[in-house]
Amino acid sequence: MSDRHDLGMRVRRKVLGDAHVDRAEAAKTAFDEPFQNLITESAWGTVWASDGISPRERSMLTLALLAALGNFEEIPMHIRATANTGASKQDVLEAFQHVAIYAGVPRANHALKLAKQTYAEMERE
C-alpha cells in the first residue's frame, strides 16, 4: 500500500475508531476493494489528514454537507466520530441550523433526528 493509504488508515482509525474500521475492513471484498482504497487514500489520507482545519471543524462541515445533500446514511457514523474529533452536541446543532437555513428545514430536521438517536445509543453503550 502507498504512504497515503497508510496515513489514511491511521486517520480513519483515529476519527472512526478501531472497531468501526475493523468491521469495515472485514466486510471488504475483491469487488469493493478498489473503492475502499480510493476513500482511504483520498477522504482519509488527503482531506481528513490535512491540518488546514481542525478535526472538530471537519466533523461539523462533514455533518452539514451530509445533511444538506441528503446523504443521511453516514450521519450516525459521523455523529459517533464526534467523540474523537471534539465536536460537541452544540457544534452539531449549530451545523444543522445552518443546513436548515441554507439547504432546507426537512433535511436539517431529519439529520437532527438521526443525531438524537445516535447520541442516545452512545449514552446507553
From TrEMBL:
EC number, UniProt record: 4.1.1.44
All residue ranges annotated as the Carboxymuconolactone decarboxylase-like domain in the record: 35-116
Residues that span the membrane, as ranges: none
Entry annotated with the keyword RNA-binding: no
Pfam families: CMD (PF02627)
Any coiled-coil regions, as ranges: none
EC supergroup of this enzyme: lyase
A GO MF term: 4-carboxymuconolactone decarboxylase activity
UniProt keywords, alphabetically: Lyase
PANTHER family in UniProt: 4-CARBOXYMUCONOLACTONE DECARBOXYLASE FAMILY PROTEIN (PTHR33570), CARBOXYMUCONOLACTONE DECARBOXYLASE-LIKE DOMAIN-CONTAINING PROTEIN (PTHR33570:SF2)
Protein name: 4-carboxymuconolactone decarboxylase
Species of origin: Ruegeria sediminis
